[in-house]
Design goal:
Blueprint lengths: L2 E5 L6 H16 L5 E5 L5 H10 L5 E2 L7 H4 L13 H11 L3 E5 L5 E6 H8 L11 E4 L1 H8 L2 E4 L7 E7 L4 H7 L8 E5 L3 H9 L4 E4 L7 H9 L3 E4 L4 H9 L21 H10 L4 E5 L5 E6 L9 E6 L15 E7 L13 E4 L5 H11 L6 H15 L9 H14 L3 H10 L3 H4 L2 H4 L4 E6 L2 E10 L3 H5 L1 H15 L3 E8 L4 E8 L1 H4 L6 E3 L2 E4 L5 H17 L1
Parallel strand pairs: 1-2, 1-14, 2-3, 8-9, 9-10, 10-11, 14-15, 15-16, 18-19
Antiparallel strand pairs: 4-5, 6-8, 7-11, 12-13, 17-18, 19-20, 20-22, 21-22
């Protein structure tokens, strides 16, 4: 099924989560089907507070949207158990028009694959294995089942045995002369209504005698078979057909290929396709982490289009987008940040406005369409707006943000000032998270003049927790920079009460020397009046990069 994911950036903040929820609701109310609010990062305590306050579920977590095996596999797997007679398996393959059949045990674990090619080699062995054409590996019950025949008397009918097929289409003397060439317990005699041949085969204590042509056995033959412990089976088919079908009574477990190639549902299509193309198999089981078959994918399935589309909110740069975004279709972007380098295959709706939050734009979509906004959605959008603009105190806040906020207060019944205070008291990243989690909780990646770097922001009530953990935060930031190969990594710690920030930077000293602000400690700059990553810090950092090149 096709789906449209409305999704914010990696390490989402409150505005990214709330605008995704709000815009997904807006698109659904416009009549767009299969629209889902999504996220590609964890939610923090403040986001959780917002969701609990308005009774809204968290967006679906999706770490990677690149096409996967699960997107093209077929979950209705046609299979048979290992003991299934070959004739039944081939009939199923013919009916379903498939060339590869998985053999699954009771726990849906794949024992191997049966292919039409393997079956054909069984029926038509090579010249140096011509004796195999007379070999029958089956139980008496399986033979009767395959022939759709009737067992008149049987001995150990469920015991699978390796038998030799002999057709009694000759004079009794000729037949009798050949009998000593075989081990009686391994002999399967196929004969028509010739009682003399039937009698000779039974007296020789053959393992099984099959009477063909729909003929019955006389009372004498039945009694003789019973006394000599010879299984007796009636076949409705002629002798030639019966002989062929006897061979196909073999259980498929003897003909499967156990060296098959399989994939995991979450395996990327791009990585799996070359392996599938190079394989001699035409289809491949899809096996979950418990070793059970959950689907099957054929070579042609790799050519199927993955019906997944994205609507990006609160960002427009692929470096910040969910993994795999470049491999699926992006149909819309709703954002309020700078425009980065992003190319699309066709024209899309791209709404980018210089307002304080993406939630402002989403709310304006409802208003412009004259569409009723549910109170819980209005509450979520209010939370995204006041979080990103620090309740309109940030330099990014605009007159339009103030107008929208007034409407959201009225629709949601929430006082923005009171809510903002509760929001920022609801959780401190520097108190409740590890240093490694804190430096990436609201982190965005950028590329400027060929250099990759990251800028994270933490909003706190004062700097006490930062100074208490300054060393471990600094070490975590430097490890984050090293592991990602960034030119530098920055963390802006904002005091939402005093409306000022501290900037911690891990990077080359030559770059740090370009930041002409007071240093409270080495690598920690006092950024008086800075509260916006987008409008204040990012322009400063990009200018510092340019200054290095001069």
């Amino acid at each position: 099924m096709s789906e449209i994911l409305v999704i914010g950036h990696r390490n989402p903040d409150t505005d990214a989560i709330c605008s995704a929820i709000g815009y997904a609701e807006f698109k659904r109310r416009l009549g767009m089907r299969n629209v889902v609010a999504a996220r590609c990062g964890d939610i923090n305590d403040r986001i959780d507070f917002v969701l609990r306050t308005f009774g809204v579920p968290a967006p679906r977590f999706i770490a990677d949207v690149s096409p996967k095996i699960s997107d093209v596999m077929r979950s209705n797997v046609i299979s048979v158990p290992p003991r299934t007679p070959l004739v039944e398996a081939l009939a199923m393959m013919d009916e379903k028009n498939i060339r590869v059949l998985p053999i699954l045990d009771m726990e849906r674990r794949c024992k191997g694959l049966l292919s039409v090619f393997k079956a054909s080699k069984f029926f038509f062995p090579s010249h140096n294995r011509i004796w195999d054409s007379r070999r029958v590996v089956a139980s008496v019950r399986s033979l009767a089942r395959t022939l759709q025949g009737k067992m008149l008397c049987t001995f150990e009918p469920d015991s699978e045995e390796d038998l030799v097929l002999m057709i009694g289409a000759m004079q009794p003397t000729s037949f009798a002369s050949r009998l000593p060439n075989y081990v009686p317990e391994q002999l399967l005699v196929v004969v028509g209504d010739r009682e003399d041949i039937q009698r000779a085969a039974i007296q020789a204590r053959s393992r099984c005698v099959i009477i063909t042509g729909g003929y019955n056995a006389s009372d004498e033959i039945r009694a003789l078979a019973q006394s000599h412990e010879v299984s007796l089976v009636l076949s409705p088919h002629d002798t030639t057909t019966t002989a062929m079908l006897c061979r196909s009574a073999i259980a498929v477990e003897h003909l499967l290929r156990s060296d098959f190639l399989s994939f995991h549902p979450d395996e990327a299509l791009a990585a799996a396709q070359p392996l599938a193309s190079a394989s001699q198999f035409q289809a491949f089981p899809v096996i979950d982490e418990d070793g059970r078959v959950v689907g099957i994918v054929s070579k042609s399935d790799f050519l199927r289009k993955v019906e997944r589309q994205l609507i990006l909110v609160d960002h427009n740069e692929l470096s910040q987008a969910v993994h795999g975004a470049a491999q699926v279709e992006i149909i819309e972007i709703i954002d309020h940040h700078r425009i980065g380098a992003l190319a699309t295959q066709q024209p899309i709706l791209f709404r980018n406005e210089p307002v304080g939050s993406t939630s402002t734009i989403v709310a304006d979509c409802f208003l412009a369409a004259g569409m009723e906004m549910p109170p819980e959605i209005a509450g979520c959008l209010l939370a995204g707006l006041v979080s990103d603009t620090l309740n309109l105190t940030s330099p990014t806040a605009t007159k339009r943000d103030a107008q929208i906020l007034e409407i959201l207060e009225r629709v949601s019944g929430i006082n923005a000032r009171d809510f903002t205070e509760r929001l920022f008291h609801s959780g401190s990243l520097l108190t409740g998270k590890s240093a490694e989690q804190a430096v990436v909780a609201d982190c965005k990646e950028y590329v400027e003049d060929g250099r990759r770097f990251s800028v994270a922001q933490i909003e706190e009530l004062g700097f006490a927790q930062f100074w208490k953990r300054r060393e471990e935060i600094g070490a975590a930031l430097d490890a984050h920079r090293t592991s990602n190969g960034y030119f530098f990594a920055a963390l802006l710690v904002t005091d939402v009460v005093q409306q000022t920030s501290l900037l911690l930077v891990a990077g080359d000293k030559k770059f740090l020397d370009q930041i002409h602000y007071p240093e409270a400690q080495p690598g920690v700059f006092e950024m008086a009046g800075f509260v916006s990553r987008k409008k204040q810090l990012l322009p400063l950092l990009t200018q510092c990069l340019k200054s290095m090149a001069i």
